[in-house]
Design a protein that fits this description.
heterotrimer, A mainly alpha, B mainly alpha, C mainly alpha, A: mainly alpha, disordered C terminus, B: mainly alpha
Chain lengths: 272, 44, 230
């Protein structure tokens, strides 16, 4: 428990990074405070559940991770991908990529906590629960999306392909979810549902805190991830511009010579 | 009861968040020196 | 658009007829997969709830569709490998064919190739796993819908990865999670077609038909974006 509180404060300390702004600092402090409050409620104040015992505490991060990853994060990727294909600006492309990356991270949290919850409750780590199964597939889906984004390609080609993938990817999350749910529905398997145990107001409140704090963490991470992505493209562009300026300065020395030695052409900058 | 599952779960999530955030901010610091102020639109 | 599609599909099939990659490589691959599945699941074990059936027969629908899916990956890789060489993709753009037609053409060629693969693997499954068909109509609809789904989604994703050096590893990663619902639906519908009752299978056949229509639409809309890029 001490370790978890430590990581919450380390989040607060590192806020003063290079991508921070006044807004992100205030928001980051709020998020860290919210996380600390959430941890207090989730691990201390919330009583154990009658049937799940203390395993109910895993719910407080498991379900919010799922909601944030599958709907919020991949939903933003979906919208931003559509916007990229319409507008063609870097902003939407980078937003889509940043959101997907954090979504994949939260998917991993969802799977990890879900399996740890399954062991004491079902006796096995993996129960072919519809939500776990469909999240595992969505996780791989967006891992493929991130793989495309990491490729060393012409940036426009990569962004366009990623955008197409991001749009169909999100629609697929829904299709996969529905079909797996339908499949498991036939077998009447247990589900990771809050409804099937008797939860008190305190449980719901802790869960609500978890949802709010995970959403805030997502927002804060997305802000910084987007800024890092933005800086990356800008750093590349800046380096290229400096290099071009240097070559052009060199070329100025050649002006006394005949023109066929070839100087830098302006068309080179056009394509960037 | 079941704390042996709860603690790894919370460690996984908060440890994962700490590692990811750390890596992200480190990358931000490295990049910050490479980008001139006029290109820092959207960034703080 | 349909003319463009037919033109391109005929081109792909002509390439196939002359190179014989499908008959010489993909079909034998599918067969060995079918045989290896038999090794993984011991052929003599019987189903507890239905002792007249072996486990292998019980899971035959799933194994058949897995073998089809794996073979389809090879066929898809092949379909875009022939466009990647000698600047064929640029030539394809220069022809001025409708992008939606290009998509349909590629998918149609894959669709026909897949049907050939499925015919052989189906006969192979019946022979090797000892299954019998009780509802041929359900099976036919399932096969047609699932094949359309695999061809449409596969063509779209193979195009996303085309021209990349990592294509061979990327296509399976992209295609398999997307086709997971199709595998699920096709397996359950085929199970119903083999062991009955057929009523259990029709909703699944409906699901994969919907999937097929969705992916045909998605491919036709987005292929323009993918083709005009480079």
């Amino acid at each position: 428990m001490t370790a978890t509180e430590e990581s919450a404060t380390s989040l607060e300390q590192t806020v003063a990074g290079a991508t921070s702004s006044r807004f992100s600092q205030v928001f980051g402090t709020l998020t860290a405070t919210m996380l600390a409050v959430f941890l207090l409620f989730a691990l201390v104040f919330s009583p154990p559940d009658v049937s799940q015992r203390d395993a109910v505490r895993l719910f407080y991060i498991h379900v919010p991770s799922a909601i944030v990853a599958l709907y919020l994060a991949f939903g933003i990727t979906f919208v931003a991908s559509i916007m990229y294909l319409r507008k063609g600006t870097d902003f939407w492309d980078l937003l889509a990529g940043s959101s997907a990356e954090i979504g994949v991270l939260f998917c991993a949290f969802m799977l990890g906590t879900g399996m740890l919850w399954g062991k004491p409750t079902w006796g096995v780590y993996w129960q072919w629960d519809p939500r776990l199964t469909s999240t595992a597939i969505s996780f791989v889906l967006f891992a493929g999306y991130l793989a495309i984004r990491r490729l060393d390609l012409d940036p426009t080609v990569r962004s366009r392909r990623a955008a197409v993938l991001g749009i169909i990817g999100f629609l697929n999350v829904i299709v996969v979810r529905q079909s797996v749910q339908w499949w498991r529905g036939l077998h009447q398997g247990q589900t990771l549902d809050l409804v099937d145990s008797q939860l008190s107001g305190m449980h719901y409140f802790s869960f609500f805190l978890g949802l709010v704090s995970m959403t805030m963490v997502f927002g804060w991470l997305l802000l910084h991830r987007f800024r890092v992505a933005w800086l990356e493209t800008q750093a590349d562009a800046a380096t290229l511009q400096t290099a071009l300026a240097e070559r052009q300065a060199e070329a100025a020395d050649y002006t006394a010579r005949p023109p066929d030695t070839g100087g830098p052409t302006t068309t080179e900058t056009e394509g960037i | 009861m079941h704390w042996e599952f709860v603690i790894p779960g919370y460690l996984l999530v908060f440890g994962g968040l700490a590692i990811y955030t750390g890596a992200l901010l480190r990358r931000a610091r490295i990049l910050a020196v490479r980008v001139p102020p006029e290109r820092r639109r959207f960034v703080g | 658009m349909l003319n463009d599609a037919l033109l391109l599909a005929a081109k792909d099939l002509r390439v196939e007829r002359r190179s014989r990659v499908l008959t010489g490589q993909v079909l034998p691959f599918g067969l060995i997969v079918l045989i290896l599945f038999g090794f993984g699941i011991s052929p003599d074990r019987r189903v507890v709830e239905a002792p007249d059936r072996t486990v292998l027969e019980q899971v035959a629908p799933g194994l058949f569709w897995l073998a089809v899916l794996l073979s389809a990956l090879l066929a898809l890789g092949r379909s875009f490998a022939i466009e990647a060489v000698d600047g064929n993709l640029d030539a394809l753009k220069l022809t001025g064919l409708d992008p939606a037609g290009v998509f349909l053409g590629k998918a149609l060629a894959i669709w026909l190739e897949l049907l050939a693969i499925e015919l052989l693997l189906g006969v192979g499954s019946l022979a090797l796993y000892g299954a019998t068909i009780t509802h041929p109509l359900l099976l036919l609809v399932t096969v047609l819908a699932a094949t359309t789904s695999i061809a449409a989604a596969g063509t779209l994703y193979a195009a996303l990865a085309s021209g990349l050096r990592v294509r061979d590893t990327l296509v399976p990663l992209l295609v398999l999670p997307v086709l997971a619902p199709v595998l699920l639906g096709a397996t359950l519908a085929t199970e119903a077609a083999l062991f009955g009752p057929a009523g259990d299978g029709w909703p699944w056949a409906g699901l994969i038909s919907t999937f097929a229509v969705l992916y045909l639409g998605a491919g036709m809309v987005s292929f323009g974006v993918l083709l005009e890029e480079t």
